[in-house]
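Subject: complex prediction, re-run

Hi both,

The earlier run crashed halfway through, so I resubmitted it with identical inputs.
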Amino acid sequence: MGSALGRWSRRLLVVGYLFLLVLWPSWYVVKNTFAGGVGAFLDVLQMPEVTSALTVTAQVALLAVLINVVFGVGVSLLLVRFRFPGRRVLSALIDLPLSVSPVVVGLALMLVYSPVYGWFGRPLSSAGIQIVFATPGMVLATCFVTLPLVVREVVPVLEELGDDQEQAARSLGADGWQTFWRITVPGIRWALIYGLVLSLARALGEFGAVKVVSSRIAGQSMTATTLVEARSQFAPREAYALSFLLAFAGVVCLIIVALLRAQADRSNGENT
Amino acid sequence: MSSRRLNRGAGLGLGIAMIWFSLLVLIPLAALVVKAAGGGLSTFGHVLTESETRDALLLTVRTSLIVTVLNVVLGTLIAWELVRDRPIRGAGVQEWLWGKVRVVIDLVIDIPFALPTIVAGLVLLSLYGPHSPLGLHWAPTTQKAILVAIAFVTLPFVVRTVQPVLEELDTDAEDAAASLGASRFTTLRRIVLPSVLPAILAGASLSFARGLSEYGSLVLLSSNSPHRTETVSVRLFAFIEQSNTQSAAALATVLLVVALLAIVVLDLVQRRVTRHG
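This time it finished cleanly. Structure:
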């Protein structure tokens, strides 16, 4: 394994790099957030603009995740259990949102849903329906960036499960819904929750795409991430408090995912 | 496993899913390309030769390349330390400590994925900004700040693609090579590297594509001044704000094509390596 000197210089390099790039800066945010004590931090969280931003973020993220779970499970079932023309193309296209810049996502949505120059946006706007610069636009942007996360988790598990049990259930007289709820859903539950938590983490933190399609009025249509940007210069306390909350939520999601992975590995071990 | 033809319920489901997918992804991306193509080739020429946009593109590509190389070297090293450099049992407190540090490293690697990009910018500002305790006043006026931001958000890619491959890799071949008199370096180059190279390249392509498209972390960390610290995504956002959709669509299409090219080229390299390996 090489000399002790080589080993320790490698270890030092890795630790030093991660300390300077991730750990030390992250620690500063915690320190700045609680610089005025826990009471001051809680006071900031009660400011109307902050609570409004948190509410908007929670609403948009939950809606997007809900849509994503329904779409994700449906598409995964279609991709794995059925043969239809265009199946491979659909499977390839599902991953597309992962490699597109958030600003490009925002622009693409604007070109279709903008009330001024959008393909559908103009007629919808004259019918009094607002997509961009309103909640539906933010939900669309968040759905776009989180789209593949559920599908990518559920598809491999469905493939591995096979459909023997589903066929058995059907041959015993279960209808489609019963088979789905009693056999399919329990089979994919860990992958589904895993995809859901990943989507939630991504949805809570989405910034670029949402920034393009929202009107960003503080206290009304600002999300937590866009408020962090708006307040970073002149009201750093709010920016730090919100950043801390978002980072905390992200890390909690990360820990849940790690625990679920271990849990899923264990139950897989029991099944085989 | 048997796959069925669509029945009525599944057909309906497919229809609904496709409508949603089209409204969300396909039609917007089509609108982007149509808009860009609508101006003809001259729009692309115009956008790409305009000096501010060209500087932004060059800066972004250059920085992403540097960070990708950095990630290939350090990311692979981190993955190696996490998988192979197990603490030696009973060899003193420093080895025990290393065991604990490895657990922390494994958690720290994922932090850039867990933090929203705007928060990443704020986080880095504390150590590399005007109030830096280290005196590293890189942000917001230097290109080094952009480098740090992209290095932060792309940190996990190479580590997390190489790590599982290293874990699966049997040490038998390495032991055999060593027992036949191969040096440590030769063993690494001839036995280990060919097995992990596809994973390294896959991580590198993800890292490069992400670097090109990074936006959120640069908003706070970079002054985004034209010709000096302005990246492509920031330039693109400025076009959108000015309602200059023609130029925005052209630049976005260029960005899409570059990202796709990076993925395709690295996929080809990866296949070549796998075939020869």
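Chain B touches chain A through 79 residues (CB under 8 Å).

- K.
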